[in-house]
Amino acid sequence: MRRRTFLRNSTAAVAGVSLLNAGFISHRAAISRDIGIQLYTLAKPLSDDFPGVIKKLAEFGYKNLEFAGPYYFSTEEEIRNDPLISMMGLTGYGYHGHTPKEIRTMLDDLDLTSKSAHIDDSSLMHSMDEAINAAKIIGQEYILSPMFIGQSADDYKAAAELYNKFGEKCKSAGIQYGYHTHSQEFAVYDGMTGFDILVQNTDPDLCCFELDLFWAEVAGVDPVKLIRQYPGRVKLLHIKEMKQKMDKVYASNEPFENMAIAMELMGMQTIIGEGIIDFKGIIDQVDDSGIDYMVIESDFPPEPIKFAEESIKNLKQILS
């Protein structure tokens, strides 16, 4: 073989190996690079200064903002009963007084994206077309129902039927519909958990799931086993930390029927990396399971800006 041919072939071989290695790590690298935050975490600061806070988030290294409602297209009852509004006196909820077009412009200017939004079932039932239109303007890939509390297997089957309908509507618009978990979905009804019922009664093409790792811990659920049990169904992870192991697990509706328990549990949340959840171990074990995005979140952190800054710094170190 002539020297020039040998060198050319050798260079191509090295490049091929490099590309192969890049492909091997690309999924893990992508979800580690494009870390998001659920804006519910910073509800009050955002209500006071939306442009200033998202600029800070971009400076901290966030790439993806997950929105939470209610929104301008939500029902008056949902807006009136929303705890963030009633308890914290928020204004401009959802898009914080801005239109979807204005949101998209602000995100583009800061090199930010929004891949997902939590939109309550009642808003989707009453204003699905408007919700989808807003999501498409902003560039969101996922519309997610944030919570459902059932009392029976039939309740969860009815919810699954509704979520298939939401999924059909979203799919026709090029958006993926999904459901965000807490702990109550792991209560058992007729030998099956509510989560099992939702997964088994929804079409995989129409409904995916966002698994909250804090609430999975509350329910005593092994997230790796769950994700492996239903390959391809969990597309997003909520990265939420727990200070210490609990004395009791709650795979039931109890935390959401007893405010004292709910507040105690939420008080167990802390800055990412300062608790007991093995995020690296979980993510390493499910790296080939089709997870698209990781989204940091906390319920009512005492210092939201500090939480956001420290959490992404710690998570990047954990995953490095």
Description:
The structure is a single chain. The longest helix is centred in the first third of the chain and has 31 residues, at 3-33. This protein has 16 helices and 12 strands. It has one domain (38-319): Divalent-metal-dependent TIM barrel enzymes (TIM Barrel, Alpha-Beta Barrel), CATH 3.20.20. It has helices at 3-33, 43-48, 50-60, 76-81, 83-88, 93-96, 100-109, 121-138, 153-172, 194-200, 213-218, 223-229, 254-257, 259-266, 279-285, 304-319; strands at residues 36-38, 64-68, 113-118, 142-145, 176-180, 188-189, 192-193, 208-212, 234-239, 241-242, 269-270, 293-296. The N and C termini lie far apart (42 Å). The model is unreliable at 1-26 (pLDDT under 50). The strands form 3 sheets. It has an 8-stranded parallel beta barrel with strand order 1-2-3-4-5-8-9-12, surrounded by 4 helices. It has a two-stranded antiparallel ribbon with strand order 6-7. With 320 residues, it is an alpha/beta fold.
Which terms summarize this structure?
8-stranded parallel barrel, alpha/beta, 320 residues, globular, TIM Barrel
Write the layout of secondary structure elements.
Elements: H1 3-33, E1 36-38, H2 43-48, H3 50-60, E2 64-68, H4 76-81, H5 83-88, H6 93-96, H7 100-109, E3 113-118, H8 121-138, E4 142-145, H9 153-172, E5 176-180, E6 188-189, E7 192-193, H10 194-200, E8 208-212, H11 213-218, H12 223-229, E9 234-239, E10 241-242, H13 254-257, H14 259-266, E11 269-270, H15 279-285, E12 293-296, H16 304-319
Parallel strand pairs: 1-2, 1-12, 2-3, 3-4, 4-5, 5-8, 8-9, 9-12
Antiparallel strand pairs: 6-7, 10-11
